[in-house]
TrEMBL record:
Name listed for the protein in its UniProt record: 4-hydroxybenzoate 3-monooxygenase
Keywords: Oxidoreductase
Record carries keyword Oxidoreductase: yes
Keyword hit for Oxidoreductase: yes
Database matches in SUPFAM superfamilies: FAD-linked reductases, C-terminal domain (SSF54373), FAD/NAD(P)-binding domain (SSF51905)
Domain FAD-binding intervals: 1-292
Native species: Streptomyces rectiviolaceus
Amino acid sequence: MRALEQRGLADRLLAHAQTHSECEFRWAGERHRFSYGELSGNRHFVYPQPLLVTDLVHAYADRAGGDIRFGIRDVELHGIDTDRPSVSYTDPATGERTRVDCDAIAGCDGARGVTRTYLGERATVARHDYGIGWLALLAEAPPSSDCVVFGIHPRGFAAHMARSPEVTRYYLECPPGDDPENWPHERVWSELRARLAVAGAPPLTEGRLIEKRVLDMHNYVVEPMSRGRLYLAGDAAHLAAPIAAKGMNLALHDALFLGDALVAYCGSGNDSDLSGYSEACLPRVWQYEEFSQWLSELLHGTSSGDPFKAGIAGARLRRILRSPAAAAAFAEIYIGTGAGS
């Protein structure tokens, strides 16, 4: 948010986004509010990602006169180890091949894109599979809480996250690779009620499910994030499972750092930030990957069927809730303001 605001890209977001400064853990039949805003001095902004993408496209294409070409196919990179790389693609309207000569190439084409395949053999991909799935749900229903809710339950993890005054995001832990059709309307709401039920909590506001898909939880990191004049950003370079909700923040950090480095290079020929791009970004990436794994063990230990993992999860949660030092450390990385984060 701070970075977007500094660049004049946050006007609509600031005008419409909800803000949160607390979350709630529901565990062992009790509610535990956690005021990370009070501890860190910062808050979260809740804004649907498609709206942010729309805002950024508008700022680039309409306000700045940028050139965006949608729907291109068969992308290939050329000369990335030279000072004049290029990109070629098939034009969707004419079927002709088009070539764009570049000073640098940003690979922002996601986990299934082509750019990271050009890093070559020197690149490594570190991967971690959690062995769990999340059933991701969008419900046409007003939020049932004023904050993010984490339900830690022997039947499986559950979560409640407001998306707008009319739409709520829910998650339910499920087997990896599960079929969303195994989760009809009544089963979904029955499990949400069971896993998020605690004394004193208002009942869930139910509604039509407008999205239902299974996410297999895994992380990966590509090292290095660059080769020659090719620089990967976002999911092309790393994936942080939604467990810690850091994916979009990491992608924005990459993009804004890379943008500043390109301005310096194209404006004055200074390529020091471009040369150090991967080394500058990876510490933050690994910080969030570690937090994702740590938080996963806290959220899923109770439902693991392993008494040891369940005990460790309980110990971690009690420490966060009872130790001011542990609470401050958790708040710092949860809100993303810690050194190196």
